[in-house]
Amino acid sequence: MGAHNALAETEYSRSCLIQFKGYCSMKILVTIHNNFVAQRFDLASEVLIAVHDGNRIVDEPRTIIMSRPSAEELCNLIIKEDVDTVICGGIEERYYKFLIWKKINVLDSVIGDYGPILELAGCRRLTSGTIIPFSLENGKMP
């Protein structure tokens, strides 16, 4: 029974839920390129930070342009901003392990338009490896 409780606590901390004004919310950072999740964490020069309350995005998401692509600077930003969940394409194992060690949920190998991906993450329905098909009708390609 003790092992089960420890597992439940670990799963709860991984879900990155925080209490915010009486409801659950999470701060999400998405590495982006144009309107899509950036292909590589270490080459991302732009990130989007949003707070999702489980139903919708709270306030206007912020976009931050990095001075240069750098995995180290991005990790520092993630810690400084107190991010709960990181969504990215590919990520090197050492950065993945560092973020997990810092109790940050990392959803990697995610491909697609960041809008629907952000909504899925906020509703806790996004998993690593999720692919959102591109819409060729609208001319949207990365």
Compact overview of the structure:
This protein is α/β, with parallel strands linked by helices and 142 residues long. It has helices at 2-14, 71-80, 93-101, 114-122; strands at residues 18-20, 23-33, 36-37, 46-52, 57-65, 85-87, 105-107.
* Intertermini distance: 48 Å
CATH superfamily (homologous) name: Dinitrogenase iron-molybdenum cofactor biosynthesis domain
Number of separate domains: 1
User: What is the string of helix and strand elements?
Assistant: HEEEEEHEHEH
Query: How much of the residues is beta strand, in percent?
Result: 25-35%
Class per helix and strand makeup? alpha/beta
Text of the CATH class = Alpha Beta
The number of distinct β-strands equals 7
Structure notes:
- The chain is α/β, with parallel strands linked by helices and 142 residues long.
- The chain has a single domain (2-122), classed as Nucleotidyltransferase, domain 5 (2-Layer Sandwich), CATH 3.30.420.
- It has helices at 2-14, 71-80, 93-101, 114-122; strands at 18-20, 23-33, 36-37, 46-52, 57-65, 85-87, 105-107.
- The longest helix has 13 residues, at 2-14.
- The chain is globular, with a radius of gyration of 15 Å.
- Mean pLDDT is 82; it is low at 1-23.
